[in-house]
Automatic annotation (TrEMBL):
InterPro entries: 5hmC_binding, EVE_domain, PUA-like_sf, THYN1-like_EVE. PANTHER family: THYMOCYTE NUCLEAR PROTEIN 1. Pfam families: EVE (PF01878). This is EVE domain-containing protein. Residues 2-149 form the EVE domain. Coiled coil: none annotated.
DNA sequence: GCCAACGTTGGC
DNA sequence: GCCAACGTTGGC
């Protein structure tokens, strides 16, 4: 059992979108970074905890708690010539990019990035390191416990 | 919209 | 394999 932080642009897929999906589950698609892909491929397991983070928006921050709901499988958008995520070098025989399914568990109060930066227990989070842009990053048990406690301070 | 930081590409 | 140029990320 591991823990992860996964970034999504809420204009594209928000935490509420996942909550509203059938079985509260959506495919996590569009990862086009090898390090992030390798985390999904090599280190994720069904049931791992996910901090669902909203990036590239007015107030970036953690929007809710989710979990890994599938094994890795090829990301369909890489084969779609009409998709923003199309990769001409990927083939059905040799896919380059993968997805996992993500199931929303619960929304806490919204935890803004600025607040996370003010919390000493979170200062080592990969997300908060200078220049960190990884869309999927590992979270320690202690960091997870801290963030979950903050999310549960006030429920929506 | 700016720009720092990082990743990828491609010529050599 | 080096590294300059270019593209992307993402907070502000």
């Amino acid at each position: 059992m591991r823990y992860w932080l996964m970034k999504s642009e809420p204009d594209e897929v928000s935490f509420d979108d996942v909550l509203a999906a059938p079985a509260q589950t959506l495919a996590w698609f569009g990862v086009r970074n090898y390090q992030a892909r390798n985390f999904m491929r090599d280190a994720m397991s069904v049931g791992d905890g996910i901090l669902f983070y909203h990036s590239s928006c007015a107030v970036p921050g953690v929007a809710g708690i989710a979990e890994v709901a599938s094994s890795p499988y090829p990301d369909a958008t890489q084969f779609d010539a009409a998709s923003h995520y199309h990769d001409p070098k990927a083939t059905l025989e040799q896919p380059r990019w993968i997805s996992v399914d993500v199931r929303a568990i619960e929304a806490g109060r919204y935890l803004p990035l600025a607040e996370m930066r003010s919390i000493p227990a979170l200062e080592d989070m990969v997300l908060l390191q200078k220049g960190s842009r990884l869309s999927i990053s590992p979270v320690t048990q202690a960091q997870w416990n801290t963030v979950v406690a903050l999310l549960k301070e006030g429920k929506r």
